[in-house]
Design goal:
It is a single chain. 35% of the residues lie in helices and 35% in strands. The strands form two sheets. A five-stranded mixed sheet has the order 3-2-1-4-7, with helices on both faces. Strands 5-6 form a two-stranded antiparallel ribbon. Strand 5 and strand 6 form a beta hairpin. The chain is globular.
């Protein structure tokens, strides 16, 4: 099974903000070749972009059966550090003797993607970027 996850967050960078929102879209192709779509969103208080993007990815992965997945995100933190998962696992989830940040989320992501091909791509330029930006703005009006 092949799946695509599109993630967007309302905040950028490592600074803690009073509130942030995320939105994800999951597209899965079923055995008849039809695309099934699911969305999810949330609001988190006292959060930065890193934790917000991790939360969105974990929530999306929880809705998938194990599968190969393409992840489209506007979060450089996810894109840059996802490839470190095997090294972190080998090092017992530590860097220079210290536990990695956001450990629980990274461990769950590793477990849910284990044995599957995962590719990360920029959200920018994807067919869903404008729609997701619009939907995220609508969420902030609530």
């Amino acid at each position: 099974m092949q799946a695509s996850i599109y993630l967007i967050t309302s905040i950028k960078g490592p600074a803690i903000r009073s509130q942030g929102r995320y939105l994800y879209l999951i597209n899965v192709e079923n055995s008849q070749g039809q695309t099934i779509s699911r969305t999810g969103y949330g609001t988190v208080k006292n959060v930065n972009e890193h934790k917000l993007a991790l939360r969105a990815l974990v929530k999306a992965l929880r809705r998938l059966k194990p599968s190969d997945v393409k992840i489209y995100t506007n979060c450089n933190y996810l894109s840059n550090y996802f490839s470190y998962l095997p090294k972190w696992q080998q090092a017992n989830w530590q860097i220079r003797g210290r536990e990695i940040k956001n450990l629980a989320a990274w461990v769950e992501i590793a477990v849910r993607t284990e044995g599957h091909e995962v590719e990360l791509h920029p959200l920018e330029g994807s067919s869903f970027q404008k729609w997701m930006e619009h939907e995220l703005l609508k969420l902030s009006d609530h």
